[in-house]
Write a structure and sequence with these properties.
4 copies of one chain form a homotetramer. Chain A is an alpha/beta fold and 440 residues long. Chain A has 2 domains: 321 residues, Zn peptidases (Aminopeptidase, 3-Layer(aba) Sandwich), CATH 3.40.630; 111 residues, Alpha-Beta Plaits (2-Layer Sandwich), CATH 3.30.70.360. Chain A contains 12 helices and 14 strands. Chain A has an 8-stranded mixed sheet with strand order 1-2-4-3-5-12-6-11, sandwiched between helices. A 4-stranded antiparallel sheet of chain A has the order 8-9-7-10. A two-stranded antiparallel sheet of chain A has the order 13-14. In chain A, a hairpin with a 7-residue loop joins strand 13 and strand 14. The two termini of chain A are 42 Å apart. Chains in contact: A-B, A-C, A-D, B-C, B-D, C-D.
Chain lengths: 440, 440, 440, 440
């Protein structure tokens, strides 16, 4: 089989996986079907596979769905194509998978991270939207792969296949990390704290799209903001607003007071910051003093320090607003990410590799354009703290509609580009005798 | 048939009606089944019956449900026991009915008002709750007669029967007004503006319960607060809270600002006032600047003037808050009631009548205890403006749980008490040769 | 000397006193000159006189001026006509005086309260304002008797003279209470807690004017609102608003947050309430995060319970707002008064007495018209708690301008009316053998 | 006279001028004495001098003091050493001066800007503060040269002397711009709009200190934030807070609402922004609904566009908050500055010149460190718009205490450094045949 034919067949494989995942999307910590298929495939290829408890610290997860939702989805997964060999280990929101290929030869530990989760978005089911036209749109109501993680998972599987096939041309160890719950920045911390990158010399997280054109690659993306996501409940006491207004404890007023306080958190001299109350729901009836108010909040900072400042201010504001109105407040951290800057020498290597790829026309070594938040930064910071190098690489593709849009879609050509680029990167890094060579 | 037996049979009749209405509750402007049964019954008795457009000014209704909800309910009513003779005239939220008994003899025009609507409350379906135990609990999800209007309608029908049977002992004209949408104070204004009480000399609105013990009667209830109900929408513009916070127009912040402003409306020197934001729902996602916010608001005042002051302040606050945050605001008045004081001489007559009733042990002539708001005040004020007398009479009953509670229920004995009291009142008033006699 | 001549001379005496006090006004707890003149005069008449520490509980005073202001004023008083015999005992803000006339005969203990303090208002110094025209306008800048307490003190002294002269026609004991610092409701509590009315059977506090016409008397004024006055300081930290906004702790924002919270304190179902932030001063420069904010706040309630509710809410709001913005808050109670209702049987006696006075044309037994707040209510409540009777009597007079106005003035005829009415009251009450006679 | 001796004498001259100005400080638009001395000296040197109306557009000034303050200061200046030759032209806040030296030879137009105004700060009058120890501390209460503009003026005069003496070694035209009211960014706009830099090819504004060490020079300072300063008055209506709360229009509440809104203005994606309410004063008494509230506000932006966004949001907030509370708002723009970036090629020339100066050890070509705001940016932007080059140069000096501190002082050596650097710059630029040479 010549290379062209091989790549065509690989492309078909990638497309099949991607379309299967797209049709069966699972939100964060629910990726039971997806992860079971991944784990089984890696196992079949000959990888040493770790999953669930082995690769995630249970209490470091954030924003885990309610237990009954997890249970219901487990049943769904079982009945909809999950691989029974791995399913049990992935229940209760422990859906991380790591595949390890040990060449047996000395060399660096290289890790690639892909994410697997979908979004709570209702996919548009109408002509002109490719998944609809081609019959692979989401079967799960209000759940959609609208950020490309279906493609990421497929790329991770394709990469696994190539690496195993070309194992003899590699050195050291390659780890393939399939992360749950990147949306809402909820899952990476639990894998980092379980130690999955503690021995890693080179770490590469990947995303497709995000505004980068097809056949363009950003070798190092430096723009991620540190962030904290909070779910907040103010608890007061209901009372009849006409007959006994003084007997209530008004959660709606406490929440409104907090809102104005939150948006008023001072700017920080050391860098950009953000705060948003995206959702506020309060009250039970027009003539009742509202006993409950629920808020979805996020803070961001150009650096982890700036975000920590905003977060600390937010906690004071929430607690003070509750005290003002004699209510109680419950604050849950449901997601968090730090900031991280790619290692320049690793960026240089990937830039060079990308230039050599037939699927890449243009390479941007380092981009500082803000691109929201990502919890791959936990892996990156851990690797860097322990002396390794880390980066976040973006593989461009043209989009039918923006990320998180109900008509989001991308050119499936990017799947092959991704596999090719990452495989070339693995080979280049495996050739580095000593990572000190390229240390910065 | 002796009187005891007659009353027993009447009681059975009242109970049947009440239980039928309880089982088939309809919210305000949706009382199509109820009103069609009432209208047909009155017609059968020999009343001249007016309904829909004849007795309601369409544009004076407030808080009318969406057209598709009206349409769906119309179909439900047709298939669930509505009387086809009248149903068509009651569609599209025009559910008022007036029955007229003209004795042909000179005498006063006497009007009784009862209301027919249920609440958006899910009835408790468990043992110990009489409607459940006796098998007449609500068949309509999230709809319940939890304020006794099922009983009011039954009393109105029982009164109609007695009046017609005893027609020869009466003089003048009796009008029986079956009002829609008292909950939320939305329906009375439209009937008042259609002129249904313009010729009325004596007007009596009735309620059961409201904290008054069984076999007690309040002849004149003076405690109603004037009120305005508003549904408010702030309309801004969504934007990504991380990438483009300056491109949003934050409806959630505008709403929170309005909330603090509304609760801060100054007290009025001339009497008690109230303001409440009972419900606030805003935003579409944690990381999106909220494009929309919805509020349910009510104001109240000890007098209509005080309420008008609070209402005017509220409008300034809502419009100003919208302007502050470059959003737009849409304010719908979805309910309104004025304040009204019972006519003392009519209260005296009813007190005397009540004292003579075998079903009444104790009479409170005038009560000023606040009891929320009621739009029967529109009828009262119109009657008084045109020289008539008006009152609001409460017929006591013991309750299983408070009004608007999911286990609300009352002793059905009150139905007979109500019919008896109102019938005696009609006879006493018909005997007044000239209402000037008892003018205050 | 006949009575007419006597009364003319008494009028001249009253006028002289009043004009002297008017020209030398002293604000609350500073009435050192005034009180020393009163004490010496009572002593000369033969009263047993108590002052300072004997009649005031030092730590129960509220809103006492700074020590250096007290010291400066002490010097001023010494050099401007204070009586050295008593001055030393009145220093440091201990300016209460009580004169006791014990007839030696059995009978009730009767107490009259007058107040002595002026206001921090700059008197208008221009023609048409009688004190200016007649040369007795205030010599103290920004200090003015603009509420008639100069007249109250003169009435108290005139009453002292008559009582002593007519001692033989009285029974029991008469106490004349000269209270400091009624303005801001700061002084009465300290005298009450020192026990000066603990043995009192009949207590009468007096005010002139307050909207009551000349030659009219209100025997019992029931309209006073309970109140609390607070001085509040938020303490934050300054920082440069451009260079280091995150380093500040913004007292101005904390104060603004508190303001919106305070006005939003819920209405109370049991009666009227009020809250006001009358003064807010914050910040040190346009480009500095404000390190300090100062607020003057008052709460009021139709009853003491309602005021206590508002006060407790206010404290939560102030502390919560401070916590929200990481600032500290210092709250000083600088004035307080309870609510109190006159004893009906005492009101009846005074009404009868007033009817008999040649200086009174019209008597209003009980008025419920709100007239602000008064701390004489502390005396009233204490007397009533211990079984005595108490009232607050208003002696009408026509005013040149309203109370607290820079052109406030009254017809000096009211001084004689006051002395006459209170003397007649003392005689009538002394004739009551047993106060149980008129107990309610 | 050799150069060393010449420089020593020049240093003495500079020190004398600086100390005289320091001792007689004048705040913005009040620099009548200072400007009259400058204008007379330039005239005596042989400059063509323009002042007042000729060099300032009257209506483009911002934050001009009240007329009576201007009048009083005019009298003070006349009696305290102002030069009568020029004083009349500088009255009424028209205190700008421009001196022109036309060499008569072809060549560029080169402009230097210095500013002359002092601050409303009370200088510390105690040992250890050099101006106090050496007897030249401020004679004007609450007025102090605490930002070094006394030195700037002296540098401008010294530069004038050197330029005239070395006129033959120059080409083209040199303009010396003495600007009023830089503090609060109030004066530059009026000179720019009068056209004083419309013909300028090279423009250099100068400041001493600002955190730059002695013998260091920043050739181009790029860190200035665009800014707007506003004085805002909310006008409501007083009412008695106890008796008639509903009759007031609460300016204090409107102001507090605006404060929370202002701090909540969204961050801008395009760069840093700031907003501060530095001062809030409201209300007239504890028990009065506040009729007036006064605020000092400033906004800033990394670019003029960002500041314009913040400013526009602030205006909406102020107007909306007024409308919410039925008050009126008056907004005065009392200062404004744009952002501006130094021209790189001019920065290069000055860097080279500075390197050659014996008074300079270290040159920082371009600094982006934020250093507050400056209205020299108006001149810079105008020059650049018309094809010229512009920069803002900082001449380092060690400070006794920070700028705007009551013990601010600097090493007077910087005066000579400044004159030398600017004179060298003038010579270097005069040698540029065509400014196109160094165009960027």
């Amino acid at each position: 089989m010549d290379e062209i034919q091989y790549m065509e067949e690989l492309h078909q494989l990638l497309q099949n996986w991607r379309r299967d995942f797209h049709q069966n999307p699972e939100i964060g910590f629910m990726e039971m079907r997806t992860a079971s298929i991944v784990a089984s495939y890696l196992e079949d290829l000959g990888y040493k596979v770790h999953a669930g408890e082995e690769v995630m610290k249970r209490e470091a997860r954030m924003g885990v769905p309610e237990q009954d939702a997890l249970d219901r989805h487990f049943e769904w997964a079982r009945q909809n194509g999950a691989d029974e060999r791995w399913l049990e280990r992935l229940k209760d929101g422990m859906t991380g998978v790591v595949g390890v290929l040990d060449t047996g030869r000395p060399g660096p530990v290289i890790a690639f991270r892909v994410d697997m989760d979908a979004l709570e978005i209702q996919e548009e089911l109408s002509p002109g939207h490719l998944p609809f036209d081609e019959g692979f749109s989401s079967v799960n109501e209000n759940t959609m792969h609208a950020c490309g993680h279906d493609g990421h998972t497929a790329i991770g599987m394709g990469l696994a296949k190539l690496l195993m096939e070309e194992k003899d041309s590699l050195n050291g160890v390659v780890k393939l990390i399939f992360q749950p719950a990147e949306e809402g920045t909820r899952g990476a911390k639990s894998m980092t704290e379980a130690g999955v990158v503690d021995d890693v010399d080179f770490f590469i997280a990947t995303h497709i799209g995000t505004g980068v054109t097809a056949r363009h690659v950003v070798a190092g993306n430096a723009g991620f903001l540190a962030t904290t996501k909070m779910d907040v409940v103010f608890k007061g006491k209901a009372a009849h607003a006409g007959a006994a207004p003084n007997e209530g404890q008004n959660a709606l007023v406490a929440a409104s007071t907090a809102v104005l306080g939150l948006y008023g958190i001072p700017r920080h001299a050391d860098g950009a910051s953000r705060v948003n109350v995206g959702v506020l729901k309060a009250g039970s009836g027009r003539n009742i003093i509202a006993p409950l108010a629920f808020l979805q909040i996020e803070t961001r900072g150009e650096t982890s320090e700036v975000n920590e400042y905003i977060r600390a201010q937010a906690l004071s504001i929430l607690q003070g607003a509750a005290a003002m109105h004699q209510t109680e407040v419950d604050i849950q951290i449901v997601g968090e990410a730090v900031s991280s800057t790619p290692s320049e020498s690793l960026v240089d290597i990937i830039s060079e590799v990308a230039t050599s790829s037939p699927y890449v026309d243009h390479v941007i070594p380092m981009s500082t354009q803000s691109a929201g938040s990502e919890d791959a930064t936990y892996f990156m910071e851990r690797v860097k703290e322990r002396g390794g190098l880390a980066t976040y690489t973006i593989i461009g593709t043209d989009l039918a509609a923006g990320h998180h849009h109900e008509r989001f879609d991308y050119d499936e050509e990017v799947l092959l580009t991704g596999v090719d680029l990452l495989f070339r990167t693995a080979k280049a890094l495996a050739a580095v005798k000593d990572e000190k060579e390229c240390q910065e």
